[in-house]
Amino acid sequence: MALYKEQSLKIYNSMSGEKEIFTPINEGNIGMYVCGPTVYSNVHLGNCRTFISFDLVFRYLKHLGFKVRYVRNITDAGHLENDADSGEDRIAKKARLEQIEPMEVVQRYTVDFHNTLQKFNNLPPSIEPTATGHIVEQIETIKKILEKGFAYEVNGSVYFDVLKFDKDHNYGKLSGRTIEDMIANTRELSGQSDKKNPQDFALWKKAEPQHIMRWPSPWSDGFPGWHLECTVMSTKYLGESFDIHGGGMDLKFPHHECEIAQGEAATGKTPVNYWMHANMLTLNGQKMAKSTGNNILPNEIFTGNNPNLSKAYSPSVARFFMLQAHYRSILDFSNDALMASEKGFNRLMDTLRNIDQLPVSNTSSFSVDEWQQRCYNAMNDDFNSPILIATLFDAVKYINAIKEGDEKISQQDLELLKNTMHDFIFEVLGLVDSTIVNEDRTQKLSGTIELLIKLRAEARNNKDFATSDQIRDQLLSLGIQLKDGKEGTTFSVE
Ligand SMILES: [Zn+2]
User: Fold this and answer.
1) Residues 379 and 460 occupy one common structural domain
2) Which of 159, 230, 474, 475 is deepest in the core (most CB within 10 A)?
3) Which of 383, 306, 300, 291 is nearest to 48 (CA)?
4) Tally of domains within the chain
5) CA of residue 72 to ligand 1 center, whole Å
6) Can you give the pTM of this predicted structure?
7) Residue 298 domain-assigned?
């Protein structure tokens, strides 16, 4: 029997502002869409947190036995510098500045995005569609919205008519804004653009002569509006109504609000049943910003090469650190916090490595069944990973007490404890025991150096000093120093 039939999962739905019992549209199957990156620069650490949060969701849903189709897009066109449909296309701008093709920009930063998420041990999504790969579908959806009367064409561009839509659809229901507030807060002066109202947003933009990323359409040579691709690609692969839509908190408005409006206008259906939003990452209590230097790139954590860090940390330690906070809470990144996480992470891994050496008894003095259910309860409560981790540490305490002879465990319970620890630590939290990898590497490296030391000794015995010096010097240039002593040659690694 699938686990999800025994466990009752609750998800905090940003639409209702409440934790709701999760019921998928089709039993046993889940459609999940998460807004992916705009690939015009290296992926930010804050974005990594968002994608790690949804990786946790994806992993837990799969662990529960659901068949999950996880769609995450790549924005490779249509995302302008300014949310109010103005400014240059972000990718085209980068291409212009670096004097390369826009698709070279897209390729470079898509590869960086994939490599970085792979280091964090994120699972790839089931489908990763691109905006430029779905221009035809986007044009079809614009036609539908025009037919339903919720959009209008001006000078080759097509805009969504927010005021008309709001009359019987409530624009702003996700972010809790009203049209009146939006009108009061708007800074755009009328007459500055072709829009009837500043709240309207572009579905299709006519390209200026210098704009290089352009496609033919019934209205003009141009490009789709940024919000449209997500509506089109989510419905294409998951249906007009699907289960979960996720993204960073900053996308709630206007991006997700616009997605809801487009979906409802085109199909008359509610596109999404559960909206999930991951919170942001700060650094030393402040917003990350390149301009102030209060910024860390993911790779700088792995190398330690950043003034905010005292040393390097493994991707698993960084992932563990992020999962120690709930995805809906703001998380503050700092060297001290990371150092504390590393300690905890190592303790967890040490315990796991020694679990097989535990002495077994006829009975257990601790209810492993009850503890296992507490692990599930934590995750069933809106993916509460910090509570799950705390519960895993209850097991660490118990295991240490067994070692000391203060607690007892039966063979059967030991199996259950071990399997549950493995499931939650590796499968659900997606952590990797980096020390095992390192130990293995160290062993291989030592073996290789010992071999070179032997070859060098042979070369010396044959009076082939050119070869023996070459081995010594080249190892030294790699940071490996050989020391000749009475007992033979030893080595040290810098
Ligand atoms: Zn999106």
Assistant:
1) no
2) 230
3) 300
4) 3
5) 9
6) 0.88
7) no
If you measure from the C-alpha of residue 34 to the centroid of ligand 1, how many angstroms do you get, rounded to a whole number? Answer: 7
In this structure, are 59 and 178 located in the same domain?
A: yes
Residue range(s) defining the domain that contains residue 470: 434-493
CATH of the domain at 377: 1.10.730.10
Residue 258 belongs to a domain with what CATH number? 3.40.50.620
Q: Angle, to 10 degrees, between the axis of helix 315-323 and the axis of helix 434-461?
A: 170
pLDDT < 50 regions, the chain: none
Closest CA to 121 of 430, 382, 438, 451: 430
**What residues form DSSP beta bridges with 152?**
159
Give me ligand 1 centre to Cα 35, in Å: 4
Q: Which of 458, 492, 445, 430 is nearest to 120 (CA)?
A: 430
Going by C-alpha positions, the residue among 210, 218, 272, 267 that lies closest to residue 245 is 272
Q: What are 37's two structure tokens?
A: 């990156």
Same-domain status, 371 and 264: no
Q: Indicate the residue type of 260.
A: I
Given 428, 448, 472, the domain boundary residue is 428
How many angstroms separate the CA atoms of 288 and 52, rounded?
A: 18
- 368 plus 424 within the same structural domain: yes
Closest CA to 238 of 61, 12, 460, 70: 70
Backbone torsions φ then ψ of 402, nearest 5 degrees: -65, -40
In a domain, residue 307? The reply is: no
Do 175 and 199 reside in the same domain of the chain?
A: yes
pLDDT tens digits for 419-468?
999 999 999 999 998 666 556 666 778 888 889 999 999 999 999 999 99
Q: How far is the CA of 232 from the centre of ligand 1 (A)?
A: 10
Cα gap 119→341, rounded to integer Å: 18
